[in-house]
């Protein structure tokens, strides 16, 4: 279920993008699942078509969904590949942390700081 909080400072397209990405990443939306059309989802959520379109474009750029022309948009297998890549990166990070003697709590704080500062996004660009 997608919920858009109109009182939130987070733009509606980002709320939608984040919620769909979370559902894809946690398996609620399985690979191959057909997403609602942009117009249908916009009407259901009371959003502008362009708002939903932007969220879908960003999900497609991230490799989480793929658009197959008039057939619609579907959850991409690339999302599963991305999750596996993240698992490998986490294992590599854990090995580095162990080799330099940093404890797990500090390692988690380092990751949290990187995620909230946007460093993770910049590193992948």
Give a description of the structure.
The chain has 125 residues and is mainly alpha-helical. The chain has 2 domains: 12-76, Arc Repressor Mutant, subunit A (Orthogonal Bundle), CATH 1.10.10; 79-124, no CATH class. Helix content is 62%, strand content 5%. The chain is built from 6 helices and 2 strands. It has helices at residues 12-25, 38-45, 49-61, 78-100, 104-117, 119-124, and strands at residues 65-67, 73-75. It has a two-stranded antiparallel ribbon with strand order 1-2. Strand 1 (65-67) and strand 2 (73-75) form a beta hairpin. Helix 1 (12-25) packs across helix 3 and helix 2 (38-45) crosses helix 3 (49-61). The longest helix has 23 residues, at 78-100. The chain is globular. The chain starts with 11 loop residues before the first helix and ends with a helix.
What structural class should be given to the helix and strand makeup?
Answer: mainly alpha
Instruction: Write down the domain tally.
Output: 2
- The proportion of residues in beta strands is under 5%
Q: How far do the termini sit from each other?
A: 31 Å
* Major beta-sheet overview: 2 strands, antiparallel
Q: What is the helical fraction, as a range of percent? A: 55-70%
Poorly predicted parts: none
Mean pLDDT: 89
CATH homologous superfamily grouping of the largest domain = Winged helix-like DNA-binding domain superfamily/Winged helix DNA-binding domain
Just name the CATH architecture of the largest domain: Orthogonal Bundle
Let me know the number of strands. 2
Q: Assign the CATH class of the largest domain.
A: Mainly Alpha
Radius of gyration: 17 Å
Q: How would you spell out the order of helices and strands?
A: HHHEEHHH
Q: Count of DSSP helices?
A: 6
């Amino acid at each position: 279920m997608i919920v858009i909080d109109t009182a939130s400072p987070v733009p509606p397209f980002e709320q939608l993008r984040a919620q769909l990405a979370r559902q894809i990443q946690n398996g609620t939306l399985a690979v191959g699942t057909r997403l609602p059309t942009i117009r249908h989802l916009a009407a259901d959520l009371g959003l502008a078509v362009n708002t939903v379109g932007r969220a879908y474009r960003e999900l497609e750029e991230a490799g989480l969904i793929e658009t197959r022309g008039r057939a619609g948009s579907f959850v991409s297998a690339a999302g599963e590949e991305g999750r596996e890549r993240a698992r490998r990166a986490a294992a590599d990070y854990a090995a580095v942390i162990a080799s330099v003697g940093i404890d797990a709590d500090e390692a988690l704080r380092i990751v949290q700081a990187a995620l909230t500062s946007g460093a993770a996004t910049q590193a992948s660009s």
